[in-house]
Each structure stands twice: as structure tokens, then as C-alpha cells.
Amino acid sequence: MALNLKVPSIVCDGCAETVTKAIHTVDANAQVNVDVSGKTVTAETNAAESAVREAITASGHTVD
Fold first, then answer.
1. 49-58 tens-digit pLDDT
2. What is the chain's percent helix, strand, coil content, to nearest 5?
3. pLDDT digits (tens, 9 = 90+) for 17-43
4. What kind and span of H or E run contains 44?
5. What is the pTM of this model?
6. CA 46, CA 22: separation in Å to the nearest integer?
7. How far apart are alpha carbons 47 and 23 in whole angstroms?
């Protein structure tokens, strides 16, 4: 399942890495692409969208 999320708190590559690691806590095999300038995250994952959103939020970021 492909998820497209807006994560306005992403400001740098470090943020992108943090978000990617957070998603990998709920699906280690997820394919994650973070667009820092667009503040978007695209994830191809088998995890539920709610679980992905919770993981991102738990890492200190906000999801719209």
C-alpha cells in the first residue's frame, strides 16, 4: 500500500532520516522516500496508515 503524507516539520536531511527510521519501526521492509523541500513522505508499506502516522508523531514530527 502506498501512503502519501504531508509532514510539515521536516526541515532537513536529518529529519528525513528520523522519519524513515520511524516508519521502519512499524515495517522494516517499507520503501520510504522523503521530499525535504516538499515536506512530503511517500511510503510503500504493509503497515496500517494509522501505525505509520503514530510512528512519525512519536519521533517528534507532525503529520497533516
1. 999 999 999 9
2. 40, 25, 40
3. 999 999 999 999 999 999 999 999 999
4. strand 40-44
5. 0.95
6. 14
7. 9
